[in-house]
Amino acid sequence: MGLRLEYASLYAGVNIIILLVIAALVITQRRRHKISLGDGGNEHLIRAMRAHANASEYIPAGLVGITLLASLGMQLTFISYALMAGGLLYAGLAQQL
Q: pTM of this prediction?
């Protein structure tokens, strides 16, 4: 069973929620420590910012990859069916000639 677009959509939704939660954690740390720009050398804020930055870097690439796999999976299924049909027709016709 190939990967389907429904699964890619589910993965996208979950990862967007994760990204929003991490962004909220950064905002909370900024408010708690009254740091509007940069990290102020605060370890908690630095960790929250790095988590958000890592998620922002990796989630989009992962979503693109999952979507392409789901889309290529459908195309590969149709291509394999067409090749099987062509091969079977050829094999059946070759026996008649």
A: 0.64
